[in-house]
Design a protein that fits this description.
By secondary structure, this protein is mostly helical. It is built from 16 helices and 2 strands. A hairpin with a 5-residue loop joins β1 and β2.
Length: 481
């Protein structure tokens, strides 16, 4: 049994086009762009922008968004090349299977499962908090004990302290989105597109209204003088801020998990990945420019809600409610795309024999891997409802960065080992761009704290136990299937 046996690309494509595990192809380029925007634009836009401006870059946070976008573009181009070559579900897991072999593919697949699970759980908890605040503005207050996990301390209406029981709204949104994903990818894409429209309207409204209340003096100095400490303003601050807001771009990689459900994957998936990155970058630049123009960066320090403070400078209090609605919509689409990506990675691993067959079973009517969706509905819902998982938030970042590095390396490997395979999309300036993608992502990965690395190691050890006790002996590739 070879640990580094590679899955032939031709076999991957052939097995994805028919049989009992065939997924329904119903997504066009705009649906894929919508999926990308749905995953990228979350509440991070409304919170990270102010933090990075106040603590690191000042008005030059706009340049930080450009730097972060360039870093993501390198990885995005590598994803696009591999997705056009290997248009099947599974994203980085599938690409790694074809380039570096089964063992490395298992590691990255197991890593992605954790990344998407933690992301969906954390976002579901945040979604619950914003829904609570939104309903409070409408004078609707739900029982506090049923909006927090048992480890959270809450303040009751009479001022006393108590522990929560279960975060019901967080579980509810996981259940509803999982059911939607089971019913069908076309229906899920339609709902996601609707939510994305709401998010875009909110961001564009803030920009359109806020531009009239910009004070040009707030842009001076554009790059504040460095305080003498690396990362606190000056050009080092611009770079540090780029590292902070990089995570506002995470999510475009999930577009590639839907490659097997795309009508014309070799064309549409690159359009979905790069198109969503371009659109989100333009929106981020406009949003950051208006926010730092309305509110001086020094006034944002210690402000938990600088966007709300900026809105208070306008005579439109209804914008506050609209922004909260946009954040809730942002969280909802992020949860949807994370759960979609997670189930498709598990589906691909199961189809290859590395996990039990039930996870790649396709519903006869819905044509979706519904059992995988059921598993993650229970798994993610349990953590969202009963655990304070905010400390695991960085797990999403480290998992994503590891996947980006593997994908950039995979492009380089395939260019040299299989140069004749058709590539409808090719990364320009090869091998410079893939190398820069590895360099940028690795530098951000090493900047994460030690606890995050330990959690990743523990999860990978669990994955190795599963691989060497089950997956290795049931691999279809190693068994000649």
């Amino acid at each position: 049994m070879k640990l580094f046996a590679k899955q032939p690309i031709s076999r991957m494509i052939e097995s994805s086009e028919g049989g009992e595990h065939h997924l329904k192809r119903s997504l066009g380029p705009w649906s894929l762009i919508s999926l990308g925007i749905g995953a990228i634009i979350g509440a991070g836009l409304f919170s990270l922008t102010g933090i990075a401006a106040a603590e690191n870059a000042g008005p030059a946070v706009v340049l930080s968004f450009v730097v972060a976008a360039v870093g993501c573009a390198f990885a995005g181009m590598c994803y696009s090349e591999l997705a056009s070559m290997i248009p099947v579900a599974g994203s980085a897991y599938t690409y790694t299977y074809a380039t570096m072999g089964e063992f490395i593919a298992w590691i990255i697949g197991w890593d992605l499962v954790l990344e998407y699970a933690v992301a969906a759980s954390v976002v579901a908890v945040s979604w619950s908090r914003y829904v609570k605040s939104f309903l409070h503005d409408l004078h609707i207050d739900l029982p506090a004990k049923f909006m927090a996990c048992p480890f959270d301390t809450i303040t009751l209406a009479d001022g006393t302290q108590a522990h929560g029981i279960v975060n019901v709204p967080a579980i509810l949104i996981i259940v509803l989105i999982s059911l939607l994903l089971m019913i069908g990818i076309k229906e899920s894409a339609w709902v996601n597109s609707t939510i994305v429209i709401i998010k875009l309207v909110v961001v564009l409204t803030f920009v359109a209204v806020g531009v009239h209340y910009i004070n040009p003096a707030n842009y001076h100095p554009f790059i504040p003088e460095n305080t003498g400490k690396f990362g606190e303003f000056g050009w080092s601050g611009v770079m540090r801020a780029a590292g902070v807001i990089f995570f506002a771009y995470i999510g475009f990689d999930t577009v590639s998990t839907a490659a097997q459900e795309s009508k014309t994957p070799h064309r549409d998936v690159p359009i979905g990945i790069l198109g969503s990155l371009v659109i989100c970058t333009v929106l981020y630049l406009a949003f950051a420019s208006v926010l730092t123009g309305m509110l001086n960066y020094q006034a944002m320090r210690g402000d938990a809600a600088p966007v709300a403070t900026a809105i208070n400078l306008t005579p439109y209090p209804w914008l506050q409610v609209m922004i909260k609605l946009g954040i809730i919509a942002g969280f909802t689409s992020v949860i949807l795309v994370m759960l979609l990506g997670q189930s498709r990675v598990f589906y691909s691993m199961s189809r290859d024999g590395l996990l039990p067959k039930l996870f790649s079973d396709i519903h006869p009517a819905w044509r979706t891997p519904w059992r995988s969706n059921l598993l993650f509905m229970a798994f993610v819902g349990f953590f969202a409802g009963f655990f304070p998982i905010s400390k695991l938030g960085h797990m999403t970042s480290i998992g994503t960065l590891l996947a980006f590095i593997i994908v950039c390396a995979g492009v380089m490997v395939l260019r040299y080992t299989q140069p004749l395979v058709p590539r409808p999309y090719r990364v320009p300036c090869f091998p410079l761009f893939p190398f820069l993608g590895i360099l940028v992502c690795l530098s951000m990965m090493t900047a994460l704290d030690g606890d995050t690395w330990w959690r990743l190691m523990i999860w990978l050890v669990i994955g190795l136990i599963v691989y060497f006790t089950y997956s290795r002996f049931n691999s279809k590739l190693n068994k000649g299937g």
